[in-house]
Every structure is written in structure tokens, then in C-alpha cells.
């Protein structure tokens, strides 16, 4: 694939400095990670967001737009701000990674965050439709919520609230699985790529402790699964860091005696 | 401090979606990390860049502009592209972190990267002057190169090249220290804040193995020092994440029964 929207023009040098490009230059395409706390925390040590940023180093900017506690209903309020229509440089790719809060059970301690599965599906559809309006060529990847370890969630609540901890789970793996199924079905309906994290993680023994730190959020190993899966899907969609150009010459291509040559010759 | 350049206007909602902002919205200020491989690698697991991105989560975007192998002479070629004059949204803060390659010794294996210390100083001054032209209020932090562990560098070379490894060091701690001193002096001359990493790291016993992975690049602990020092300097300059507003309401401020209220009322 020829790189989309790569209208970067390399200028001539003036007095050893590159001359001024017109307006803000767009050196690198943007990959936006849009989601809830699992996205917001993705730049912690071992996080899937920072691993992506590292993998696309000097090729693309990975921009985190994670909102802890948000469900898709609240995410809609942000949509036009994070992804304004008419932007001259919309992201080349966006991950949409909600559902963990939508799937909180009605009438339990996280009731406030609950969104019925039909509305969740419709909200994700609205997000996708908006992104496609921003840029019809944008790669959009849906990510299902991860599985829930109810025992781990209970232990976590007890470690925080002691005896006052919830007695009944505020999320169940079964219900979250229904949201995951709807996410997968929506991706099929809309012809989008999807990471079924809920299923993928449960293929591994001891996924409850291996991948989840509190029954819901991800351990570094869990972050590794998201990174591997998102990387795989991006590569399948031709958004492979190896195929993408560096923003500027690799240092080994710079002639120490005549450095400007590498900068002049490079036509991105 | 009142947040600079925060001309964000929160719009009214239309049909439950936020109405279209004019042009590209600038929701978050940008912090740019400009430097060589030690900046480029700062989003690896345990890296100082991703730790900063996490600390400023939902407050500022941390943008990595690290170029492995680059010295300040080559960095000048990128200056107008990374920091175009006339940008409507220049970074609020930039770290300038070069010198490790400039300080490579003349006539040794990394000769190509060598830049005399006077030119290094002048190049960093040019970078600063350009950034201040972009935005006179930009917080600019100079970072000196880290110390060099010559034995560690030699071991690393042998692990890669075996018997063909360099016999004489391509960098020495003493010479790199001269570059660090010039960096500190330049910061004083220009009234800029500075992280003297070369000195700071050597205050700790076993800094050679504790902070450096190959005699030059940083271990996770070494990354931790950079993160701590840059965070400290940012805070001293009032760029403290705790003082900065969230880009959008915290989920706990959203009324589950009337979510639009939180979005309408929030005037950033």
C-alpha cells in the first residue's frame, strides 16, 4: 500500500537549516487509541499503548485518548472533539475499545456505568460512522472488553473496602461476553477488523491471574496480548511499521562530511 | 498558574452529541521530547517518556521526537519541521536531550558523529532560540548526556563484534562530562532549567550497572532517574499534572441519569 495522506514535501535547505514548511507540517500519521481505563492505562510500564508507540517509533505517533470509567454513552460526548469533522489530518487508524463499563450490571455497585447491550452496539456504530465521515480510509479496529475474573474482582474490592465490599459481582464474565459477541458481530456487519480479547485471553490457562490484575484491568502480560493482537491486525491491514518510512533519514544514511545531502535527497 | 494557551471553548450539545468545534480542536497541550536514541527509546517498557505520558494522562500529550544516532548538527536539519514557526499550537514544553553522540571522540569508531563542544553548545543555543521564536512562553528544559561507563561500552562492543570490537573507547566519561558542563553553563546563560544527568547519576553507587545497559543507554532504573528529574523540573516550572485540568470530566462527576450536565457545565 502506498502510504495514504503522505503529502509531505521535503524542502530545500537554507543556510544549513531546513527552510520553513508551509503551516504545521504533518510528519507522521497518527494512530489514536480511543477507549476507557484499559486504554488510559496503556502507557504504564509494560502497557500496550507505549509498546505500540515504540513499535511505530519515527513512523507514526500513537495518541492515547483513554477515559477511565467511561462507557460508550459518555464517549459520544467526546466524539466531535477528539475527532473533529473537517480536520486536515485525521488519524490513519483508530482503536475503539469500550464495553468493560457498559457491561457493568444494572442494580449493582457500578450501576451508574451500565449501558444496555443494544445501546452499546448502537453507540459503537455511531462512533464508527463518525470516524468514517472524518476519513473514509481510516483503519478502524474494534476491541472487545477483556474477560472478567469475578473472584479476582471480589478480592480486589475486599482489599479496598474490607467488609463493606460488594457481596454480589458488579460485572460477570458471562454478561461481558455478550457485549463482546455484539462487538464482534458489529465488526462483521460493518466490515471492520476486530480483536476479540474476551475469547483470546480465555484460550490461555490461568488467564484470570496471568492477564488480569484486579479481575478487570490488565497485567503486563495482559497488555502484551493486546499489543500482539492489535499489532497483528494492523499488519494485516498493511499498517506495518516495517513498511512505513522513517520521518527523517536514519543516522547511518547521513554522510558525516556532507550531512545536508541525506536531508536534501530524501523524498518522502 | 493559569493554563497558557488554553483557548478551548466547550460547546453546547446537539442531539446528545457535542456540536462541531471550529477546525481542529486543541484539547491538550503538547510536551515534546526532542533528542537522540535515549529519547527515541523512552517509550520502551519502563521508559521515561511513557512514564511522563502516563503522569500527564488526560492533561497533556507527550510527543516523542527522538532520533537515534543524531548529534546536534544533524538535529538542526529537523528543527523547522518538528517546530514550524507560525504554528497555532506550539508545544508548552520541550526537552532538549542531545550530546551523547556529539561527545563521541574524533578519530575513533564513532568519529562520524563527533561534534566539537563549542559547536554542540552553539547548536543547542540555536535550537533554544528557534523554540523561543515558536513560543516565548514555552518551557524549555536542557538535559545533559548521561555519564559513560567505558568498561560497559567495551563489553557491549565485544558482545556484538567479538574480536573485531574497538580497542579504544569511542566515548569517555571525562569528555562527555565536558559537554555536560557546557550544557549546564548554557542553561544558566539563557536562564533555562536544566537536568544535569551526568552529575546526578554519578551520585549513586554502581551507577555504571544500575543506570546504564550498555555503558551509554539507560536501564529501567536509569529511565527512572530521567523521569524523576524531568518531573521535578516541570513541577518547579508550574507544569504539574496535579494542577492541570482534565481534558474532559472525570467519570465520577458524570450524573448517570443526566450525563450531558457534566459536559455542558465543564468550562475549561
Automatic annotation (TrEMBL), chains A, B:
Key word Lipid metabolism present: yes
SUPFAM superfamilies assigned: SGNH hydrolase
Region of interest called Disordered, as start-end residue ranges on this chain: 249-268
GO terms, biological process: lipid catabolic process
Keyword Nuclease carried by entry: no
InterPro entries to which the protein is assigned, alphabetical: GDSL, Iah1-like, SGNH_hydro_sf
Keywords: Hydrolase, Lipid degradation, Lipid metabolism
Gene Ontology molecular function: hydrolase activity, acting on ester bonds
Protein family: Belongs to the 'GDSL' lipolytic enzyme family.
This protein's name: SGNH hydrolase-type esterase superfamily protein
Amino acid at each position: 500500500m502506498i502510504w495514504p495522506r503522505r503529502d509531505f514535501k521535503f524542502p530545500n535547505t537554507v543556510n544549513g537549516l531546513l527552510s520553513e514548511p508551509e503551516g504545521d507540517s504533518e510528519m507522521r500519521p497518527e494512530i489514536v487509541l480511543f477507549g476507557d481505563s484499559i486504554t488510559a492505562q496503556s502507557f504504564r510500564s509494560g502497557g500496550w499503548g507505549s509498546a505500540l508507540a515504540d513499535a511505530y517509533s519515527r513512523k507514526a505517533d500513537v495518541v492515547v485518548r483513554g477515559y477511565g470509567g467511561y462507557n460508550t454513552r459518555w464517549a459520544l460526548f467526546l466524539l466531535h472533539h477528539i475527532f473533529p469533522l473537517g480536520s486536515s489530518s485525521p488519524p490513519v487508524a483508530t482503536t475503539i475499545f469500550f464495553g468493560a463499563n457498559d457491561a457493568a450490571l444494572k442494580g449493582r455497585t457500578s450501576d451508574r456505568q451500565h449501558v444496555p447491550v443494544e445501546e452499546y452496539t448502537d453507540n459503537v456504530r455511531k462512533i464508527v460512522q463518525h470516524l468514517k465521515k472524518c476519513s473514509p480510509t481510516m483503519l478502524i479496529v474494534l476491541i472487545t472488553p477483556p474477560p472478567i475474573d469475578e473472584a479476582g474482582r471480589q478480592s480486589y474490592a475486599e482489599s479496598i473496602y474490607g467488609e463493606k465490599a460488594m457481596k454480589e459481582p458488579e460485572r460477570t464474565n458471562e454478561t461481558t461476553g455478550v457485549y463482546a459477541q455484539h462487538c464482534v458481530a458489529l465488526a462483521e456487519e460493518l466490515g471492520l477488523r476486530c480483536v476479540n480479547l474476551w475469547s483470546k485471553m480465555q484460550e490461555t490457562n490461568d488467564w484470570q491471574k496471568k492477564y488480569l490484575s484486579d479481575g478487570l484491568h490488565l497485567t503486563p502480560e495482559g497488555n502484551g496480548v493486546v499489543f500482539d493482537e492489535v499489532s497483528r491486525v494492523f499488519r494485516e491491514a498493511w499498517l506495518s511499521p516495517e513498511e512505513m518510512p522513517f520521518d527523517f533519514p536514519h543516522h547511518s544514511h547521513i554522510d558525516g562530511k556532507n550531512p545536508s545531502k541525506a536531508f536534501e535527497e530524501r523524498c518522502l
